[in-house]
């Protein structure tokens, strides 16, 4: 099975930056489409950013221009660089992997990001 281990969450001031990491194991990383989702209290989980096996990227309108998703296939890791953070970015952030052909999806445990003064 695919395991996803996240790191990098925490407390940051508005306007600050944070980088989330998600390390994958149990699969050939290059066949995994990767994404970051977030869920704020009382709200549904939403897609933040995704990156395909070919490194094509997509972003939610709310984070476009501020967040950057990237992957390092040699390290089996996907990153989410978050700049110009706003209080509304506060949420639990989840890493998601989707394997090619089977379409199986796997989720990380979630990491808390809090943007507050």
SSE layout and pairings?
Layout: E1 3-7, E2 10-12, E3 18-25, E4 32-39, E5 46-51, E6 57-59, E7 67-72, E8 77-82, E9 91-99, E10 105-107, E11 111-115
Parallel strand pairs: 2-11
Antiparallel strand pairs: 1-3, 3-8, 4-5, 4-9, 5-6, 7-8, 9-10, 9-11
Percent range for β-strand residues? over 45%
Largest sheet: 7 strands, mixed
* Oligomer classification: single chain
The helix content is under 10%
The DSSP helix count reads 0
Q: What class do helices, strands and sheet pairing give?
A: mainly beta
How many strands appear in the DSSP assignment?
Answer: 11
Task: Tell me about this structure.
The chain has strands at residues 3-7, 10-12, 18-25, 32-39, 46-51, 57-59, 67-72, 77-82, 91-99, 105-107, 111-115. By secondary structure, it is mostly beta strands. Strands 2, 4, 5, 6, 9, 10 and 11 form a seven-stranded mixed sheet that branches. Strands 1-3-8-7 form a four-stranded antiparallel sheet, with no helix packed on it. Strand 7 (67-72) and strand 8 form a beta hairpin. The protein is globular and about 45 Å long. The model has no long low-confidence stretch (mean pLDDT 97).
